[in-house]
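Subject: Protein record for review, amino acid sequence with backbone structure tokens
Category: Structural biology, sequence-to-fold work with a learned token vocabulary.
Format: Residues in single-letter code; tokens as whole numbers, each standing for a residue.
Body of memo: The sequence and its backbone structure tokens, given next.
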Amino acid sequence: MRGRGDRARRRTGRSRVQLTYWLEHAWLGTHVEPGVALTVADERITEVRTGVGAPPPGATVLRGLTLPGLANAHSHAFHRALRGTVQVGTGTFWTWREIMYGVAQQLTPDSYFDLARAVYAEMALAGITAVGEFHYLHHQQDGTPYDNPNAMGEALIAAAAAAGIRITLLDTMYLHGGLGRDGHKPLTGPQVRFGDGSAERWYERWSQLKGGGHAVIGAALHSVRAVSAAADGYAAFARWTDGVPTHIHLSEQPAENEACLAAYGRTPARLLADAGFWKPTATAVHATHLTGEDIGLLGRSGSTVCMCPTTERDLADGIGPAPRLRAAGSPLSLGSDSHAVIDLFEEARAMELNERLRTRARGHWTAAQLLRAASEDGHASLGRPDAGRLEQGALADFTTIALDSVRTAGPVPRLGAETAVFAATGADVTHTVVGGRQIVRDGHHLLVEDVPAALTAAIAAARG
């Protein structure tokens, strides 16, 4: 039975348990600091002490370089089942999409839970402490809602909890099968699982989702291909979702822009701006093929842009105008999207290296700026502005990479940010902590005993 001490602790906000982590080296946003002690209570960092040369008694020791937890701002968990398969032969984004639909058709709430749990565990092993799940696989194979219309979304929320990471469920409105010169096309085949029939029915289902704790409920429009400005109401969506994270695939393909111009006489970015979509809580995913006006619209609104360089090059989409977007005022975040690989260090360096190839110049971002895109700005785009920093009051979400692997050995520790971005991979992650709780220790996931086996079994089931 709880006594007066418990009631007093609840009144004062104190936790019964405080933990101390001693970080051999820590990235504090501007520099690497040796010997840092973090005190954690109630899932938050309550104290940061520097100059602590040795571990305090009872502290958990994290050797290497500790960084704020990484934010994977754009994920489609079921795409993980495509890894390897879609790398055979040739094709385009559109042929890749047909293979993806085949996997989407097979999943049930139970099998999706198993797959997502394994995928999110893989993310934790790569230092990711929060994921933005762009979720549109809503209904049964014939489009009929489950008895619980949010069964699939709730499976994803439960999977993230089981893997020990945070999730922002970006429940997606997806009502049409494409945009042609004659208007929007109906959903067909596997796409019928994605649709709610109308914007109002989507809102009715979406408003029943419950967040809290490890889960934030956000919202998304799939794209201008899948939602009609005229009939489906971008403006209504903007009103319904005011104050929550909202995401959209934007101008990923030139064909999308061409169809939108033919149908509306405006680019996708302008069409959305006219409906009031762009705001600081909004995120454009990909934004690969933008006009100068589009870039200005996004930048002036303070909307984030989520770059997914590995997917964008895997699908031959192109290189987005990330430096111009940043200069215009848009924060940048990063996502692994189709999960060709799950490695935010790779995504961060790819954003810089892609620009080097395009411009034949180096140094478009510092390592500090790229780490911020992979952490703080990503968390903010997922509705958690209190994450992504190692400072008092922030969520106690952090990850540690080894500085003595074959990839990271050699550089002096003060160059840890550069080492992390330009040399490390997810395989160098040794520890991941979420809410002060160790999820990964010494490279082993503590909640999912055998992550490769879990992935193998779940992917086999998803392929049918």
Summary: The mean pLDDT is 93. The first strand starts at residue 19 and ends at 27. The CA atoms of residues 24 and 54 lie 8 Å apart.
